């Protein structure tokens, strides 16, 4: 997940838990992300669980891709009890038999938890805690007639002129332009899998080619739209939140958002499976999900948690505006399919790279016409 997570794994132990020996089988060992997301987990989940149960917790911050997780859990040498993984990694590791199957009944708290979790939250080997997203953010100052309200504005440079900052990556960029071109969220990957659908996506990109800026670092998207270099930008929801609470001219366009999930799972090699399940049950209770969302702007994956989020505890901002899973924000949303890209993305990635290179290539000047002394010059009335 692109949220400023560290690339290299490094272990640290929470100051209130255990000394630096870290990976002890007498502790609950959790592999998760770093950055603002990890700090929010510590405040909303890890510290409260330690206080409530007396359990010592050690955390491992890791890079987040499948290889990172696999290296931590495959041979069982590092006693990880709980992992926080992306939806794509969850499915891959589950299919490889490296994760414990999850019993949905074990997540019940008050009433039927399965009905309270949002669609897609509970799977065979994990339970999603939060959703994060890519959405369009627009600078109101760039649009005298008002900011755009639908994803179609991305392709409408007539009504909404200005540069569009898009990821320098086929993933999510092609989905965005298909959504903007009128493809329903449920049909995007089916469309993109066909030659005609791929052509449609690149034709949509060509329509705005002169108004596209490609960003390679997520922070560039927000910087460009804040400074006015771009009129609108596709950015990640956590960064949009941090930018929008500072610059009130930024308008978030949730229509056509592309969201993904993070989920808790238990490795097959976990030495403390019962304690791991108790932690996951606690971490996915509505109150804890709401407490985490209050700090991060990542959307909780339970309906009852959404109603409890309220305002950010430090800056007093109502967080509903920034949550990908809030009802008003998720009406037209596409769930990102990481595995689809792994299976179908090679040709599209290569084609996009060539398209991006053509965007950066200098325009070739027209050949200079031979100078004339005027004897053979056309008259002003010539067609």
Automatic annotation (TrEMBL):
<feature type="region of interest" description="Disordered">
    <location>
        <begin position="360"/>
        <end position="383"/>
    </location>
</feature>
<keyword id="KW-0732">Signal</keyword>
<dbReference type="Pfam" id="PF13416">
    <property type="entry name" value="SBP_bac_8"/>
</dbReference>
<protein>
    <recommendedName>
        <fullName>Spermidine/putrescine ABC transporter substrate-binding protein</fullName>
    </recommendedName>
</protein>
<keyword id="KW-0574">Periplasm</keyword>
<feature type="compositionally biased region" description="Low complexity">
    <location>
        <begin position="372"/>
        <end position="383"/>
    </location>
</feature>
<dbReference type="InterPro" id="IPR006059">
    <property type="entry name" value="SBP"/>
</dbReference>
<feature type="signal peptide">
    <location>
        <begin position="1"/>
        <end position="22"/>
    </location>
</feature>
């Amino acid at each position: 997940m692109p949220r400023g997570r560290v690339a290299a794994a490094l272990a640290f132990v929470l100051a209130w838990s255990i000394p630096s020996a870290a990976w002890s089988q007498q502790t609950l060992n959790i592999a998760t992300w770093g950055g603002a997301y990890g700090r929010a987990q510590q405040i909303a989940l890890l510290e409260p669980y330690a206080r409530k149960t007396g359990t010592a917790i050690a955390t491992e911050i890791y890079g987040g891709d499948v290889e990172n997780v696999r290296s931590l859990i495959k041979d069982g040498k590092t006693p990880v009890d709980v992992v926080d993984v992306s939806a794509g990694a969850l499915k891959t590791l589950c299919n490889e038999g490296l994760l414990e199957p999850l019993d949905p009944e074990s997540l019940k708290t008050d009433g039927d938890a399965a009905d309270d979790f949002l669609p897609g939250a509970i799977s065979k080997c994990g339970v999603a805690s939060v959703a994060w997203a890519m959405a369009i953010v627009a600078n109101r100052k760039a649009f005298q007639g008002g900011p755009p309200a639908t994803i179609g504005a991305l392709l409408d440079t007539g009504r909404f002129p200005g540069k569009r900052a898009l990821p320098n990556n086929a993933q999510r960029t092609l989905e965005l332009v298909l959504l903007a071109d009128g493809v329903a969220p449920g049909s995007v990957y089916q469309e993109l899998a066909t030659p005609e659908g791929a052509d449609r996506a690149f034709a949509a990109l060509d329509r705005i080619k002169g108004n596209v800026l490609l960003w390679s670092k997520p922070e560039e998207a927000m910087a460009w739209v804040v400074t006015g270099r771009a009129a609108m930008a596709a950015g990640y929801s956590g960064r949009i939140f941090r930018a929008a609470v500072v610059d009130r001219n930024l308008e978030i366009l949730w229509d056509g958002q592309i969201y993904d999930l993070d989920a808790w799972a238990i490795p097959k090699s976990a030495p403390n499976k019962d304690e791991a399940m108790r932690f996951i049950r606690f971490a996915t209770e509505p109150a804890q999900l709401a407490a985490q969302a209050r700090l991060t702007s990542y959307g909780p994956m339970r309906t009852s948690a959404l109603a409890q989020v309220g305002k950010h505890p430090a800056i007093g901002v109502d967080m509903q505006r920034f949550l990908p899973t809030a009802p008003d924000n998720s009406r037209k949303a596409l769930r990102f399919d990481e595995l689809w890209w792994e299976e179908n993305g090679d040709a599209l990635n290569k084609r996009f790279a060539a398209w991006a290179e053509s965007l950066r290539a200098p325009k070739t000047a027209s050949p200079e016409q031979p100078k004339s002394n005027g004897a053979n010059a056309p008259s002003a009335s010539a067609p």
